[in-house]
Design the sequence.
């Protein structure tokens, strides 16, 4: 068992310390080359200092001292790109230098020489260990430190009988401090990188959750529209037999089947709608009742009954009046002849105007807003425009769903949405909602529908505030 564990440990040690893999260099030019240039200058100083120490105090011929010192400095440079081979080279050179100086000490030609580590050798080893600890896993750094300590202790034991100045303990202590420092710096760098990754994931998850919440809100509103149509189908199927004198039994059966299927579909729709609403039972649909917005920038949202009818453009006048009551000057203009529009288009147009005005109140205090509806043969263009804020914009308490909801609604209908600043410092929201999409059935326009205030103003249009990273209030 002991032999097996020893073999496993030696195999792991070989894999860790016989590889050239390391973390890549930092991407920044300054972070890469400025410290590396300093390290190269230090390596040159190590080579010069080690040459003088070995030849003058260690009594080693210059022809041997210079190559050994040059290899010591080269090991530091090599560790910049290949830290593990650099560590092997520095440690091996230190052992060769120690053995060469030992023979001179035993012969009496070198007295009081710092041994087994020269001053330049200690500096070189510390730099190599620091570069190693910064770019390899912690286990590899600890293994390199352990072998360095082991080599130092063995050399220290060999020089007991010689006259020298021991440097083994100082080398071991400094090496341990440098390795711990390198491990701490590497751990800090990894923690920062992980924090950056988690921040990115959190932002992506928040954006995905916001999108799903907005789609869920739109789905709840559209379920109401679909449920209304299914109710109409059921009633028409029930009444149809009474409109025909002596209707055949086949017709009665078909109409009864239509009514039964409509009722079953309506029941399932109500169940799905109940599930959607139960996700946020205390959250009322936005602005289905009187406004509670204030001039201080509160969003145009109010608490209403969860089963209230979905708003259409017929309620645009009430929306404008409530917005004016909140302190915002709003004018409305229309172009073209109004004609029947699909319920989804009516609802989306109303919500786009509502959310745009809410953002004006919240992010453009003191501004004025203009609403313009353009009725075209193939769709409806909605524009909301505001002037430049006249007071300091208050800080937003949190990100909402306004702009996101507008995009989702226009995309759902196959339309387009454009948002951009205006030259006068205001903002403009422009949406086009097509009505010729397949399968869309237009709802009749009530003849007694109220006309919004300032409906005779046909000037072109509308806008909103400059975009804010924490915008999108619903």
Sequence:
């Amino acid at each position: 068992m002991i032999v097996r564990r020893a073999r496993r440990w030696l195999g792991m040690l070989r894999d860790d310390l016989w590889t050239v893999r390391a973390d890549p260099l930092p991407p920044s030019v300054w972070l890469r080359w400025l410290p590396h240039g300093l390290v190269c200058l230090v390596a040159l100083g190590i080579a010069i200092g080690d040459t003088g120490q070995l030849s003058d105090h260690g009594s080693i011929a210059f022809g041997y001292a210079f190559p050994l010192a040059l290899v010591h400095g080269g090991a530091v440079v090599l560790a910049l790109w290949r830290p593990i081979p650099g560590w092997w080279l520095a440690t091996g050179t230190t052992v060769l230098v120690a053995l060469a100086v030992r023979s001179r000490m035993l012969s009496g030609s070198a007295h009081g020489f710092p041994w087994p580590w020269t001053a330049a050798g200690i500096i070189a080893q510390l730099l190599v260990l620091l570069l190693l600890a910064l770019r390899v896993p912690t286990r590899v750094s600890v293994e390199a430190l352990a072998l360095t300590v082991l080599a130092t202790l063995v050399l220290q034991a060999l020089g007991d009988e010689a006259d020298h100045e021991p440097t083994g303990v100082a080398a071991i202590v400094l090496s341990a401090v440098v390795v711990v420092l390198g491990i701490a710096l590497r751990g800090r760098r990894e923690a920062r990188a992980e924090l950056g990754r988690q921040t990115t994931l959190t932002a992506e998850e928040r954006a995905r959750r916001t999108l799903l919440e907005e789609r869920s809100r739109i789905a709840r509103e559209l379920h109401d529209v679909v449920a209304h149509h299914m109710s109409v189908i059921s009633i028409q199927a029930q009444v149809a037999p009474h409109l025909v004198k002596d209707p055949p039994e086949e017709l009665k059966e078909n109409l009864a089947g239509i009514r039964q299927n409509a009722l079953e579909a309506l029941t399932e729709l109500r169940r799905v709608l109940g599930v959607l609403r139960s996700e946020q039972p205390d959250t009322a649909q936005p602005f289905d009742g009187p406004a509670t917005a204030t001039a201080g920038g509160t969003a145009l949202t109010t608490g209403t009954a969860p089963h209230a009818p979905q708003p259409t453009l017929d309620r645009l006048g009430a929306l404008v009046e409530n917005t004016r009551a909140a302190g915002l000057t709003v004018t409305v203009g229309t172009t073209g002849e109004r004609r029947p529009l699909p319920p989804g288009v009516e609802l989306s147009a109303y919500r786009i105007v509502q959310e745009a005005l809410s953002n004006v109140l919240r992010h453009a205090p003191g501004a004025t807003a203009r609403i313009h509806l353009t009725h075209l043969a193939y769709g409806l263009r909605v524009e909301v425009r505001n002037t430049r804020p006249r007071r300091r914009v208050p800080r937003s308490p949190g990100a909402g769903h306004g702009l996101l909801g507008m995009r989702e609604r226009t995309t759902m209908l196959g339309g387009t949405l454009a948002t951009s600043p205006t030259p006068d410092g205001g903002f403009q929201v422009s949406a086009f909602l097509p009505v010729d999409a397949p399968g869309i059935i237009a709802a009749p326009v009530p003849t007694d529908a109220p006309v919004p205030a300032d409906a005779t103003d046909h000037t072109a249009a509308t806008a909103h505030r400059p975009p804010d990273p924490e915008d999108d209030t619903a």
Q: What stands out?
A: The first strand starts at residue 113 and ends at 115. Strands lie at 113-115, 164-166, 329-335, 368-376, 379-386, 416-421, 427-434.
